[in-house]
Recover the amino acids of this structure.
């Protein structure tokens, strides 16, 4: 049997191992979908025009 070859005879350990892999795969898919949606929502902002240094400082 394959469980004896790999060295994990207990089926509960197999279940926990497989659930960890499935959870990791779901995290990757969720992050990929979330990143794709955020990129679609955020349009690049136009670059601000350069202002003279005098206007950037406030005078008291």
């Amino acid at each position: 049997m394959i469980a004896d070859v790999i060295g994990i005879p207990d089926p509960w350990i197999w279940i926990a191992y497989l659930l960890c892999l499935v959870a990791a795969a779901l995290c990757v898919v969720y992050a990929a979908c979330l990143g794709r949606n955020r990129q679609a929502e955020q349009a690049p902002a136009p670059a601000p025009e350069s202002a003279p240094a005098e206007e950037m400082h406030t005078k008291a």
